[in-house]
Amino acid sequence: MGLLLFENDWRDVWNGAEPSEPVGAVFTKPEVTAFILDLAGYSVQPGFRLASRRLLEPSCGDGAFITIAIERLLASELQEIGQIDWDSAQIDAAVRACDVNSAFVAIAREKTAEMLCTHGCPRGRAAALAERWIEHADFLLKHWRERFDFVVGNPPYVRIEEIPVSVMSRYRELYQTCGDRADLYVAFFEQGLRLLSADGILAFICANRFAKNQYGRSLRQFIAQEFRVRFYVNLEHTQPFVSDVSAYPCVIVIDRLRGEGAHAVSLDSVEPEVLDQLVRERSLPAGGVWSHFPEWYPDGAPWVATNREEFLEHAGLAERFPVLEESGRGTRVGIGVATGNDDVFISPGLMPEIEAECQLPLVMAADVSAEAVRWSGHYLINPHEHSAESKLRDLSRYPGLRAYFEKHRAALAKRHTARKQPDFWFRTIDRVNFPLAGAPKLLLPDIQAGGVIGHTSGAWYPQHNLYWITSEEWNLAALQALLRSSFVLRQVRKVSVQMRGGSVRYQAQVLRQLRIPRYQSLRPELVSALASVGSSSDQCRIDELAAEAFNQRA
Protein backbone atom coordinates (compact mmCIF):
# COMPACT_ATOMS: atom_id res chain seq x y z
CA MET A 1 0.00 0.00 0.00
CA GLY A 2 1.48 3.34 -1.05
CA LEU A 3 1.92 6.53 0.91
CA LEU A 4 -1.40 8.15 1.77
CA LEU A 5 -1.56 11.93 1.59
CA PHE A 6 -4.15 13.55 3.81
CA GLU A 7 -5.29 17.16 3.79
CA ASN A 8 -3.89 19.63 6.30
CA ASP A 9 -7.49 20.29 7.31
CA TRP A 10 -10.37 17.92 6.63
CA ARG A 11 -12.66 20.92 6.11
CA ASP A 12 -10.87 21.57 2.82
CA VAL A 13 -12.63 18.55 1.35
CA TRP A 14 -15.95 19.55 2.92
CA ASN A 15 -15.47 23.07 1.44
CA GLY A 16 -15.20 24.60 4.87
CA ALA A 17 -18.55 23.19 6.00
CA GLU A 18 -19.82 20.07 7.73
CA PRO A 19 -22.95 17.97 7.42
CA SER A 20 -26.01 20.04 8.30
CA GLU A 21 -27.60 16.96 9.83
CA PRO A 22 -26.01 14.19 11.91
CA VAL A 23 -24.41 11.66 9.57
CA GLY A 24 -25.55 8.08 10.13
CA ALA A 25 -26.36 8.62 13.80
CA VAL A 26 -27.60 5.35 15.37
CA PHE A 27 -26.85 4.98 19.07
CA THR A 28 -26.05 1.71 20.83
CA LYS A 29 -27.74 0.49 24.01
CA PRO A 30 -25.43 0.76 27.06
CA GLU A 31 -25.47 -2.99 27.74
CA VAL A 32 -24.43 -3.69 24.15
CA THR A 33 -21.66 -1.09 24.37
CA ALA A 34 -20.40 -2.79 27.53
CA PHE A 35 -20.52 -6.15 25.75
CA ILE A 36 -18.42 -4.82 22.85
CA LEU A 37 -15.81 -3.38 25.22
CA ASP A 38 -15.72 -6.69 27.12
CA LEU A 39 -15.13 -8.69 23.92
CA ALA A 40 -12.37 -6.28 22.96
CA GLY A 41 -10.73 -6.69 26.37
CA TYR A 42 -11.16 -3.05 27.38
CA SER A 43 -12.31 -3.91 30.89
CA VAL A 44 -11.18 -3.55 34.48
CA GLN A 45 -8.87 -6.49 35.15
CA PRO A 46 -6.25 -7.08 37.85
CA GLY A 47 -2.77 -6.19 36.61
CA PHE A 48 -4.09 -4.53 33.44
CA ARG A 49 -3.92 -0.76 33.64
CA LEU A 50 -6.11 0.78 30.96
CA ALA A 51 -4.25 4.10 31.22
CA SER A 52 -1.21 2.36 29.72
CA ARG A 53 -3.23 1.67 26.56
CA ARG A 54 -4.58 4.03 23.92
CA LEU A 55 -8.23 3.90 22.84
CA LEU A 56 -9.82 5.56 19.80
CA GLU A 57 -13.53 6.00 19.11
CA PRO A 58 -13.85 7.19 15.49
CA SER A 59 -17.47 8.37 15.45
CA CYS A 60 -18.43 9.32 18.97
CA GLY A 61 -21.86 10.85 18.37
CA ASP A 62 -23.24 12.28 21.59
CA GLY A 63 -20.72 10.36 23.72
CA ALA A 64 -22.76 7.34 24.79
CA PHE A 65 -19.98 4.93 23.78
CA ILE A 66 -16.91 6.89 24.82
CA THR A 67 -18.25 7.81 28.28
CA ILE A 68 -18.62 4.12 29.20
CA ALA A 69 -15.03 3.53 28.11
CA ILE A 70 -13.84 6.49 30.21
CA GLU A 71 -15.73 5.15 33.23
CA ARG A 72 -13.73 1.94 32.86
CA LEU A 73 -10.50 3.88 32.49
CA LEU A 74 -11.11 5.66 35.78
CA ALA A 75 -12.16 2.45 37.57
CA SER A 76 -8.96 0.81 36.36
CA GLU A 77 -6.86 3.65 37.78
CA LEU A 78 -8.50 3.30 41.16
CA GLN A 79 -7.94 -0.45 41.17
CA GLU A 80 -4.34 -0.39 39.94
CA ILE A 81 -2.85 2.65 41.71
CA GLY A 82 -5.54 3.55 44.26
CA GLN A 83 -6.16 7.07 42.97
CA ILE A 84 -6.65 9.14 39.83
CA ASP A 85 -3.86 11.55 38.95
CA TRP A 86 -5.84 14.02 36.89
CA ASP A 87 -2.67 15.67 35.59
CA SER A 88 -1.09 12.39 34.43
CA ALA A 89 0.35 12.35 30.91
CA GLN A 90 -0.95 8.78 30.59
CA ILE A 91 -4.48 9.95 31.31
CA ASP A 92 -4.03 12.66 28.70
CA ALA A 93 -3.05 10.14 26.03
CA ALA A 94 -5.36 7.27 26.99
CA VAL A 95 -8.42 8.32 24.99
CA ARG A 96 -9.14 9.89 21.63
CA ALA A 97 -12.50 10.34 19.91
CA CYS A 98 -13.87 12.41 17.09
CA ASP A 99 -16.99 13.19 15.12
CA VAL A 100 -17.65 15.14 11.94
CA ASN A 101 -20.68 16.87 13.49
CA SER A 102 -19.79 19.80 15.78
CA ALA A 103 -23.10 19.62 17.68
CA PHE A 104 -22.40 16.03 18.69
CA VAL A 105 -18.86 16.93 19.70
CA ALA A 106 -20.18 19.66 21.98
CA ILE A 107 -22.67 17.28 23.63
CA ALA A 108 -20.07 14.54 24.05
CA ARG A 109 -17.59 16.96 25.61
CA GLU A 110 -20.23 18.27 28.02
CA LYS A 111 -21.24 14.73 29.07
CA THR A 112 -17.62 13.74 29.54
CA ALA A 113 -16.72 16.82 31.59
CA GLU A 114 -19.74 16.34 33.87
CA MET A 115 -18.90 12.69 34.37
CA LEU A 116 -15.27 13.53 35.23
CA CYS A 117 -16.46 16.09 37.78
CA THR A 118 -18.60 13.46 39.51
CA HIS A 119 -15.38 11.45 39.94
CA GLY A 120 -13.61 14.36 41.64
CA CYS A 121 -11.85 16.00 38.70
CA PRO A 122 -11.50 19.79 39.04
CA ARG A 123 -13.97 21.47 36.66
CA GLY A 124 -11.36 23.31 34.64
CA ARG A 125 -9.28 20.17 34.15
CA ALA A 126 -12.43 18.19 33.30
CA ALA A 127 -13.27 20.62 30.50
CA ALA A 128 -9.67 20.53 29.24
CA LEU A 129 -9.58 16.73 29.20
CA ALA A 130 -12.93 16.53 27.40
CA GLU A 131 -11.68 18.96 24.77
CA ARG A 132 -8.39 17.09 24.38
CA TRP A 133 -10.01 13.67 24.20
CA ILE A 134 -12.88 14.55 21.84
CA GLU A 135 -12.02 16.30 18.59
CA HIS A 136 -14.17 17.83 15.87
CA ALA A 137 -12.78 16.02 12.83
CA ASP A 138 -13.55 13.67 9.96
CA PHE A 139 -12.00 10.38 11.03
CA LEU A 140 -11.48 9.35 7.41
CA LEU A 141 -9.69 12.56 6.38
CA LYS A 142 -7.61 13.30 9.47
CA HIS A 143 -3.94 12.26 9.38
CA TRP A 144 -3.56 10.24 12.57
CA ARG A 145 0.08 10.20 13.67
CA GLU A 146 -0.30 7.68 16.48
CA ARG A 147 -1.38 4.04 16.67
CA PHE A 148 -4.01 2.67 19.03
CA ASP A 149 -4.39 -0.45 21.15
CA PHE A 150 -8.19 -0.29 20.89
CA VAL A 151 -10.33 1.11 18.09
CA VAL A 152 -13.92 0.72 19.20
CA GLY A 153 -17.33 2.10 18.42
CA ASN A 154 -20.32 2.35 16.15
CA PRO A 155 -19.27 3.73 12.74
CA PRO A 156 -21.95 5.68 10.83
CA TYR A 157 -24.54 3.97 8.64
CA VAL A 158 -24.54 6.15 5.51
CA ARG A 159 -25.33 5.34 1.91
CA ILE A 160 -22.96 6.88 -0.61
CA GLU A 161 -25.80 8.91 -2.14
CA GLU A 162 -26.08 10.88 1.10
CA ILE A 163 -22.46 12.10 1.01
CA PRO A 164 -21.32 15.09 -1.09
CA VAL A 165 -19.77 13.89 -4.36
CA SER A 166 -16.43 15.63 -3.73
CA VAL A 167 -16.16 14.10 -0.25
CA MET A 168 -17.04 10.60 -1.45
CA SER A 169 -14.54 10.94 -4.29
CA ARG A 170 -11.78 11.72 -1.78
CA TYR A 171 -12.79 8.80 0.44
CA ARG A 172 -12.47 6.46 -2.53
CA GLU A 173 -9.04 7.83 -3.35
CA LEU A 174 -7.89 7.07 0.18
CA TYR A 175 -9.62 3.75 0.89
CA GLN A 176 -9.25 0.78 -1.44
CA THR A 177 -12.16 -1.08 0.17
CA CYS A 178 -14.61 1.78 -0.44
CA GLY A 179 -15.60 0.83 -3.98
CA ASP A 180 -18.73 -0.32 -5.74
CA ARG A 181 -21.70 0.77 -3.60
CA ALA A 182 -20.04 0.27 -0.24
CA ASP A 183 -21.60 1.88 2.80
CA LEU A 184 -19.39 4.43 4.57
CA TYR A 185 -18.68 2.12 7.52
CA VAL A 186 -16.49 0.01 5.20
CA ALA A 187 -13.95 2.85 5.00
CA PHE A 188 -14.10 3.17 8.81
CA PHE A 189 -13.03 -0.46 9.05
CA GLU A 190 -10.06 0.08 6.74
CA GLN A 191 -8.85 3.20 8.52
CA GLY A 192 -9.43 1.70 11.96
CA LEU A 193 -7.47 -1.45 11.09
CA ARG A 194 -4.58 0.59 9.70
CA LEU A 195 -4.36 2.48 12.98
CA LEU A 196 -4.02 -0.61 15.20
CA SER A 197 -0.83 -1.09 17.17
CA ALA A 198 1.07 -4.38 16.90
CA ASP A 199 -1.24 -6.03 19.45
CA GLY A 200 -4.20 -3.75 18.82
CA ILE A 201 -7.86 -4.75 18.67
CA LEU A 202 -10.73 -3.27 16.66
CA ALA A 203 -14.30 -3.81 17.90
CA PHE A 204 -17.23 -2.36 15.94
CA ILE A 205 -20.97 -2.73 15.86
CA CYS A 206 -22.13 -2.11 12.32
CA ALA A 207 -24.41 -3.34 9.54
CA ASN A 208 -23.67 -6.95 8.57
CA ARG A 209 -24.13 -6.35 4.81
CA PHE A 210 -20.39 -6.34 4.14
CA ALA A 211 -20.16 -9.94 5.38
CA LYS A 212 -22.08 -11.33 2.38
CA ASN A 213 -22.63 -8.57 -0.19
CA GLN A 214 -20.45 -7.99 -3.22
CA TYR A 215 -19.47 -4.51 -2.01
CA GLY A 216 -17.89 -6.08 1.08
CA ARG A 217 -15.55 -8.38 -0.84
CA SER A 218 -12.59 -5.96 -0.80
CA LEU A 219 -12.97 -5.44 2.94
CA ARG A 220 -13.25 -9.19 3.58
CA GLN A 221 -10.09 -9.75 1.51
CA PHE A 222 -8.27 -6.99 3.41
CA ILE A 223 -9.19 -8.58 6.73
CA ALA A 224 -8.29 -12.12 5.58
CA GLN A 225 -4.90 -11.07 4.23
CA GLU A 226 -3.64 -9.11 7.23
CA PHE A 227 -5.83 -9.71 10.28
CA ARG A 228 -7.82 -12.26 12.29
CA VAL A 229 -11.52 -12.15 13.09
CA ARG A 230 -11.51 -12.96 16.79
CA PHE A 231 -15.28 -12.71 17.38
CA TYR A 232 -18.22 -12.33 15.00
CA VAL A 233 -21.70 -11.91 16.49
CA ASN A 234 -24.60 -11.74 14.04
CA LEU A 235 -27.36 -9.57 15.51
CA GLU A 236 -29.62 -9.17 12.47
CA HIS A 237 -32.66 -10.52 14.34
CA THR A 238 -32.17 -8.27 17.37
CA GLN A 239 -32.47 -4.58 18.17
CA PRO A 240 -29.23 -3.45 19.91
CA PHE A 241 -29.86 0.26 19.35
CA VAL A 242 -31.61 2.88 21.43
CA SER A 243 -34.00 3.70 18.55
CA ASP A 244 -35.82 1.09 16.48
CA VAL A 245 -33.91 1.03 13.19
CA SER A 246 -33.66 -1.53 10.39
CA ALA A 247 -29.88 -1.79 10.49
CA TYR A 248 -29.30 -5.59 10.51
CA PRO A 249 -26.24 -5.30 12.73
CA CYS A 250 -23.32 -7.41 13.84
CA VAL A 251 -20.49 -7.07 16.33
CA ILE A 252 -17.04 -7.87 15.00
CA VAL A 253 -13.75 -7.97 16.90
CA ILE A 254 -10.53 -8.08 14.85
CA ASP A 255 -6.86 -8.31 15.82
CA ARG A 256 -3.52 -8.91 14.09
CA LEU A 257 -3.19 -12.59 15.04
CA ARG A 258 -3.65 -13.80 11.48
CA GLY A 259 -4.07 -17.56 11.23
CA GLU A 260 -5.57 -17.98 14.70
CA GLY A 261 -9.11 -19.30 15.20
CA ALA A 262 -12.36 -17.37 15.45
CA HIS A 263 -15.51 -17.60 17.57
CA ALA A 264 -18.91 -16.85 16.00
CA VAL A 265 -22.56 -16.90 17.00
CA SER A 266 -25.97 -15.63 15.85
CA LEU A 267 -28.25 -14.18 18.52
CA ASP A 268 -32.00 -13.75 18.77
CA SER A 269 -31.73 -11.60 21.91
CA VAL A 270 -29.45 -8.94 23.36
CA GLU A 271 -30.76 -9.27 26.89
CA PRO A 272 -27.97 -8.69 29.45
CA GLU A 273 -27.91 -12.30 30.62
CA VAL A 274 -27.37 -13.52 27.04
CA LEU A 275 -24.50 -11.10 26.49
CA ASP A 276 -22.98 -11.93 29.88
CA GLN A 277 -22.91 -15.64 28.99
CA LEU A 278 -21.09 -14.88 25.74
CA VAL A 279 -18.49 -12.86 27.61
CA ARG A 280 -17.98 -15.63 30.18
CA GLU A 281 -17.52 -18.27 27.48
CA ARG A 282 -15.43 -16.21 25.05
CA SER A 283 -12.20 -18.02 25.92
CA LEU A 284 -13.52 -21.57 25.56
CA PRO A 285 -11.85 -23.40 22.63
CA ALA A 286 -15.15 -25.09 21.72
CA GLY A 287 -18.62 -25.77 23.04
CA GLY A 288 -20.97 -23.42 24.84
CA VAL A 289 -22.85 -20.81 22.87
CA TRP A 290 -19.95 -19.97 20.56
CA SER A 291 -19.04 -21.94 17.45
CA HIS A 292 -15.29 -22.27 16.97
CA PHE A 293 -13.72 -21.88 13.51
CA PRO A 294 -10.09 -23.03 13.25
CA GLU A 295 -9.86 -20.65 10.31
CA TRP A 296 -12.27 -17.86 9.41
CA TYR A 297 -13.35 -17.44 5.79
CA PRO A 298 -10.24 -17.02 3.61
CA ASP A 299 -9.66 -14.86 0.54
CA GLY A 300 -12.70 -12.62 0.89
CA ALA A 301 -15.29 -15.40 0.65
CA PRO A 302 -18.77 -14.46 1.94
CA TRP A 303 -19.31 -15.21 5.62
CA VAL A 304 -22.25 -17.53 5.02
CA ALA A 305 -22.64 -19.09 8.47
CA THR A 306 -21.77 -18.51 12.11
CA ASN A 307 -22.26 -22.19 12.88
CA ARG A 308 -19.34 -24.47 12.03
CA GLU A 309 -21.55 -27.42 11.02
CA GLU A 310 -23.59 -25.24 8.68
CA PHE A 311 -20.38 -23.90 7.18
CA LEU A 312 -19.10 -27.42 6.51
CA GLU A 313 -22.43 -28.37 4.92
CA HIS A 314 -22.19 -25.35 2.62
CA ALA A 315 -18.57 -26.11 1.76
CA GLY A 316 -19.56 -29.69 0.90
CA LEU A 317 -22.11 -28.43 -1.62
CA ALA A 318 -19.44 -26.28 -3.24
CA GLU A 319 -17.24 -29.33 -3.71
CA ARG A 320 -19.97 -31.45 -5.31
CA PHE A 321 -22.13 -29.11 -7.38
CA PRO A 322 -21.67 -26.25 -9.85
CA VAL A 323 -23.09 -22.77 -9.35
CA LEU A 324 -26.45 -22.06 -10.93
CA GLU A 325 -25.17 -20.38 -14.12
CA GLU A 326 -22.82 -23.32 -14.78
CA SER A 327 -25.43 -26.03 -14.11
CA GLY A 328 -26.87 -26.03 -17.63
CA ARG A 329 -25.90 -24.60 -21.01
CA GLY A 330 -26.91 -20.99 -21.51
CA THR A 331 -28.24 -20.51 -17.97
CA ARG A 332 -28.31 -16.81 -17.09
CA VAL A 333 -29.42 -14.66 -14.18
CA GLY A 334 -30.44 -11.01 -14.37
CA ILE A 335 -32.72 -8.28 -13.03
CA GLY A 336 -35.61 -6.38 -14.57
CA VAL A 337 -35.54 -2.82 -15.85
CA ALA A 338 -34.75 0.06 -13.48
CA THR A 339 -36.29 3.36 -14.61
CA GLY A 340 -35.30 5.97 -12.04
CA ASN A 341 -38.93 7.14 -11.91
CA ASP A 342 -41.55 4.40 -11.92
CA ASP A 343 -44.40 6.91 -11.59
CA VAL A 344 -43.58 8.22 -15.07
CA PHE A 345 -42.31 5.11 -16.83
CA ILE A 346 -44.86 2.55 -15.56
CA SER A 347 -48.53 2.74 -16.45
CA PRO A 348 -51.29 0.56 -14.92
CA GLY A 349 -52.73 0.04 -18.40
CA LEU A 350 -52.27 0.84 -22.07
CA MET A 351 -52.20 4.61 -22.65
CA PRO A 352 -54.09 5.52 -25.85
CA GLU A 353 -52.26 8.81 -26.34
CA ILE A 354 -48.89 7.00 -26.67
CA GLU A 355 -47.95 4.84 -29.65
CA ALA A 356 -48.68 1.20 -28.83
CA GLU A 357 -45.26 0.01 -29.98
CA CYS A 358 -43.72 2.27 -27.30
CA GLN A 359 -45.51 0.41 -24.52
CA LEU A 360 -44.06 -2.90 -23.34
CA PRO A 361 -46.09 -5.29 -21.16
CA LEU A 362 -44.41 -5.28 -17.74
CA VAL A 363 -44.71 -7.98 -15.10
CA MET A 364 -44.57 -6.78 -11.48
CA ALA A 365 -43.42 -8.54 -8.31
CA ALA A 366 -47.01 -8.69 -7.05
CA ASP A 367 -47.98 -10.64 -10.21
CA VAL A 368 -45.69 -13.53 -9.30
CA SER A 369 -46.45 -16.57 -7.17
CA ALA A 370 -45.09 -20.09 -7.27
CA GLU A 371 -48.41 -21.37 -8.58
CA ALA A 372 -48.75 -18.92 -11.50
CA VAL A 373 -47.76 -15.57 -12.97
CA ARG A 374 -50.90 -13.44 -13.35
CA TRP A 375 -50.18 -10.29 -15.31
CA SER A 376 -51.80 -7.20 -13.81
CA GLY A 377 -51.82 -5.26 -17.07
CA HIS A 378 -48.94 -2.85 -16.38
CA TYR A 379 -46.85 -1.37 -19.18
CA LEU A 380 -43.41 0.13 -19.43
CA ILE A 381 -43.42 3.43 -21.34
CA ASN A 382 -40.43 2.37 -23.35
CA PRO A 383 -37.93 4.85 -24.82
CA HIS A 384 -35.88 2.12 -26.56
CA GLU A 385 -36.24 0.74 -30.07
CA HIS A 386 -37.10 -2.91 -30.70
CA SER A 387 -33.60 -3.83 -31.86
CA ALA A 388 -30.61 -5.83 -30.75
CA GLU A 389 -28.80 -2.58 -29.90
CA SER A 390 -31.81 -1.24 -27.96
CA LYS A 391 -31.04 2.30 -29.09
CA LEU A 392 -33.04 5.23 -27.77
CA ARG A 393 -35.94 6.20 -29.98
CA ASP A 394 -35.94 9.32 -32.13
CA LEU A 395 -38.76 11.15 -30.38
CA SER A 396 -39.58 13.14 -33.50
CA ARG A 397 -40.98 9.92 -35.00
CA TYR A 398 -43.26 9.29 -31.99
CA PRO A 399 -45.29 12.44 -31.25
CA GLY A 400 -47.38 10.77 -28.55
CA LEU A 401 -44.34 9.47 -26.68
CA ARG A 402 -42.56 12.82 -27.09
CA ALA A 403 -45.52 14.76 -25.71
CA TYR A 404 -45.75 12.42 -22.73
CA PHE A 405 -42.06 12.67 -21.88
CA GLU A 406 -42.05 16.47 -22.37
CA LYS A 407 -44.92 16.70 -19.90
CA HIS A 408 -42.72 14.97 -17.32
CA ARG A 409 -39.40 16.43 -18.43
CA ALA A 410 -38.68 18.28 -15.18
CA ALA A 411 -39.01 15.12 -13.09
CA LEU A 412 -37.04 12.95 -15.51
CA ALA A 413 -34.20 15.46 -15.87
CA LYS A 414 -33.57 15.41 -12.11
CA ARG A 415 -32.50 11.78 -12.15
CA HIS A 416 -28.81 10.90 -11.83
CA THR A 417 -28.77 9.11 -15.18
CA ALA A 418 -30.22 12.21 -16.89
CA ARG A 419 -27.72 14.54 -15.24
CA LYS A 420 -24.91 12.33 -16.53
CA GLN A 421 -26.31 12.35 -20.08
CA PRO A 422 -28.53 15.42 -20.39
CA ASP A 423 -29.18 14.83 -24.11
CA PHE A 424 -30.83 11.53 -23.20
CA TRP A 425 -32.88 12.83 -20.28
CA PHE A 426 -35.80 10.52 -21.21
CA ARG A 427 -33.91 7.20 -21.04
CA THR A 428 -34.49 4.54 -18.39
CA ILE A 429 -31.55 3.63 -16.15
CA ASP A 430 -31.32 0.19 -17.79
CA ARG A 431 -31.63 -0.67 -21.44
CA VAL A 432 -34.39 -3.05 -22.41
CA ASN A 433 -33.23 -6.48 -23.58
CA PHE A 434 -36.12 -7.20 -25.95
CA PRO A 435 -35.50 -10.95 -26.50
CA LEU A 436 -36.03 -11.42 -22.74
CA ALA A 437 -39.66 -10.28 -22.99
CA GLY A 438 -40.74 -13.28 -25.04
CA ALA A 439 -38.35 -15.84 -23.59
CA PRO A 440 -39.53 -18.54 -21.15
CA LYS A 441 -38.14 -17.57 -17.76
CA LEU A 442 -38.31 -17.95 -14.02
CA LEU A 443 -39.21 -14.84 -12.05
CA LEU A 444 -38.17 -14.23 -8.43
CA PRO A 445 -39.36 -11.25 -6.36
CA ASP A 446 -36.41 -9.58 -4.67
CA ILE A 447 -37.55 -9.51 -1.01
CA GLN A 448 -39.65 -12.48 0.08
CA ALA A 449 -40.03 -15.21 2.67
CA GLY A 450 -38.41 -17.71 0.30
CA GLY A 451 -39.48 -20.10 -2.42
CA VAL A 452 -41.64 -17.67 -4.42
CA ILE A 453 -40.47 -18.51 -7.94
CA GLY A 454 -42.77 -18.07 -10.90
CA HIS A 455 -42.48 -19.76 -14.31
CA THR A 456 -43.80 -18.03 -17.41
CA SER A 457 -43.66 -18.10 -21.17
CA GLY A 458 -45.63 -14.85 -21.33
CA ALA A 459 -44.26 -12.00 -23.43
CA TRP A 460 -43.75 -9.76 -20.42
CA TYR A 461 -40.70 -7.84 -19.35
CA PRO A 462 -39.78 -7.91 -15.63
CA GLN A 463 -39.76 -4.83 -13.40
CA HIS A 464 -36.60 -3.92 -11.46
CA ASN A 465 -37.61 -5.73 -8.26
CA LEU A 466 -37.85 -9.03 -10.12
CA TYR A 467 -34.88 -11.26 -10.88
CA TRP A 468 -35.06 -13.60 -13.86
CA ILE A 469 -33.44 -16.89 -14.89
CA THR A 470 -33.32 -18.20 -18.46
CA SER A 471 -31.65 -21.33 -19.80
CA GLU A 472 -31.04 -22.99 -23.15
CA GLU A 473 -30.76 -26.44 -21.56
CA TRP A 474 -32.78 -26.66 -18.36
CA ASN A 475 -36.40 -27.67 -18.24
CA LEU A 476 -37.41 -24.49 -16.40
CA ALA A 477 -40.27 -26.14 -14.53
CA ALA A 478 -37.79 -28.70 -13.14
CA LEU A 479 -35.37 -25.91 -12.22
CA GLN A 480 -38.26 -24.07 -10.57
CA ALA A 481 -38.91 -27.08 -8.35
CA LEU A 482 -35.25 -27.41 -7.37
CA LEU A 483 -34.97 -23.71 -6.53
CA ARG A 484 -38.13 -23.92 -4.41
CA SER A 485 -36.77 -26.86 -2.41
CA SER A 486 -35.67 -26.62 1.21
CA PHE A 487 -32.16 -27.63 0.13
CA VAL A 488 -31.79 -24.48 -1.95
CA LEU A 489 -33.71 -22.23 0.45
CA ARG A 490 -31.21 -23.11 3.19
CA GLN A 491 -28.45 -21.95 0.84
CA VAL A 492 -30.33 -18.74 0.09
CA ARG A 493 -30.59 -17.98 3.80
CA LYS A 494 -26.86 -18.52 4.23
CA VAL A 495 -25.67 -16.37 1.32
CA SER A 496 -28.44 -13.74 1.41
CA VAL A 497 -28.67 -10.80 3.74
CA GLN A 498 -31.72 -11.46 5.89
CA MET A 499 -34.34 -8.83 6.53
CA ARG A 500 -36.35 -8.10 9.67
CA GLY A 501 -38.93 -10.84 10.18
CA GLY A 502 -36.86 -13.49 8.43
CA SER A 503 -37.34 -12.42 4.80
CA VAL A 504 -34.44 -12.89 2.40
CA ARG A 505 -33.23 -11.08 -0.71
CA TYR A 506 -32.98 -12.99 -3.98
CA GLN A 507 -30.32 -10.73 -5.46
CA ALA A 508 -28.33 -11.71 -8.55
CA GLN A 509 -25.23 -12.09 -6.39
CA VAL A 510 -27.18 -14.56 -4.22
CA LEU A 511 -28.52 -16.57 -7.14
CA ARG A 512 -25.07 -16.81 -8.71
CA GLN A 513 -23.71 -18.45 -5.55
CA LEU A 514 -26.33 -21.20 -5.35
CA ARG A 515 -25.08 -24.76 -5.85
CA ILE A 516 -27.40 -27.16 -7.66
CA PRO A 517 -27.01 -30.44 -9.58
CA ARG A 518 -25.81 -30.25 -13.16
CA TYR A 519 -28.75 -30.73 -15.53
CA GLN A 520 -26.95 -33.49 -17.44
CA SER A 521 -26.49 -35.45 -14.19
CA LEU A 522 -30.25 -35.90 -13.69
CA ARG A 523 -32.16 -38.86 -15.09
CA PRO A 524 -34.89 -37.86 -17.59
CA GLU A 525 -37.51 -39.47 -15.34
CA LEU A 526 -36.38 -37.30 -12.41
CA VAL A 527 -36.43 -34.16 -14.56
CA SER A 528 -40.00 -34.95 -15.60
CA ALA A 529 -41.03 -35.58 -12.00
CA LEU A 530 -39.47 -32.31 -10.86
CA ALA A 531 -41.18 -30.43 -13.69
CA SER A 532 -44.54 -31.85 -12.63
CA VAL A 533 -44.22 -30.20 -9.18
CA GLY A 534 -42.57 -26.93 -10.23
CA SER A 535 -45.70 -24.91 -9.40
CA SER A 536 -47.09 -27.34 -6.83
CA SER A 537 -47.99 -26.43 -3.26
CA ASP A 538 -46.79 -29.88 -2.09
CA GLN A 539 -43.51 -28.89 -0.43
CA CYS A 540 -42.92 -32.40 0.86
CA ARG A 541 -43.01 -33.83 -2.66
CA ILE A 542 -40.74 -31.04 -3.96
CA ASP A 543 -38.23 -31.79 -1.21
CA GLU A 544 -38.46 -35.54 -1.79
CA LEU A 545 -37.54 -35.16 -5.46
CA ALA A 546 -34.91 -32.50 -4.72
CA ALA A 547 -33.33 -34.84 -2.20
CA GLU A 548 -32.92 -37.41 -4.93
CA ALA A 549 -31.37 -34.79 -7.20
CA PHE A 550 -28.96 -33.71 -4.48
CA ASN A 551 -28.38 -37.35 -3.46
CA GLN A 552 -29.41 -36.55 0.10
CA ARG A 553 -32.02 -37.74 2.55
CA ALA A 554 -35.17 -35.59 2.50
Describe the structure.
The chain is an alpha/beta fold. The protein has 2 domains: 10-259, Rossmann fold (3-Layer(aba) Sandwich); 332-550, no CATH class. It has helices at residues 30-40, 64-81, 89-93, 102-118, 123-133, 165-174, 185-194, 217-226, 272-280, 308-320, 342-345, 399-407, 409-413, 416-420, 434-438, 476-484, 486-495, 508-511, 524-532, 539-550; strands spanning 55-57, 95-99, 134-136, 148-153, 196-207, 228-234, 249-255, 262-266, 291-293, 332-335, 346-347, 359-363, 379-381, 441-445, 447-448, 454-456, 461-462, 466-470, 504-505. The strands form 4 sheets. A 9-stranded mixed sheet has the order 3-2-1-4-5-7-6-8-9, sandwiched between helices. A 4-stranded antiparallel sheet has the order 10-18-14-16, with helices on one face. Helix 2 (64-81) runs parallel beside helix 4 (102-118). The radius of gyration is 27 Å and the shape is globular. The two termini are 50 Å apart.
Set down the secondary structure blueprint.
Blueprint: H1 30-40, E1 55-57, H2 64-81, H3 89-93, E2 95-99, H4 102-118, H5 123-133, E3 134-136, E4 148-153, H6 165-174, H7 185-194, E5 196-207, H8 217-226, E6 228-234, E7 249-255, E8 262-266, H9 272-280, E9 291-293, H10 308-320, E10 332-335, H11 342-345, E11 346-347, E12 359-363, E13 379-381, H12 399-407, H13 409-413, H14 416-420, H15 434-438, E14 441-445, E15 447-448, E16 454-456, E17 461-462, E18 466-470, H16 476-484, H17 486-495, E19 504-505, H18 508-511, H19 524-532, H20 539-550
